[in-house]
Amino acid sequence: MKSSPMFRRQIQVSGMTCAACVGRIERGLKKVEGIENISVNLATGSATLDLSQNLSNDQLAQSI
User: Fold this and answer.
1) What pTM does this model have?
2) Residue 32 contacts by C-beta under 8 Å, 6 or more apart in sequence?
3) Are the CB atoms for 48 and 10 separated by under 8 Å?
4) pLDDT on residue 7
5) Among residues 48, 59, 36, which one has the least CA distance to residue 12?
6) Can you tell me the mean pLDDT for 26-48?
7) Residue 38: how many CB atoms within 10 A of its CB?
8) Which of 4, 31, 41, 43 lies 20 to 30 A from 21 at CA?
């Protein structure tokens, strides 16, 4: 059972050009412990993350 999200964070993701890019980023982020939900938006070049723990930008960037 997943815990309730404690943090909501929006990050900018540059370099996405297609739906395959969105899928690749979502799959990479799903592997990170502490991310409960992910929504990647190609049009805005951003990802909204629901986190159960505070993760650094470096931790997120490594998974993308």
Assistant:
1) 0.81
2) 55, 59, 60, 63
3) yes
4) 87
5) 48
6) 94
7) 17
8) 4
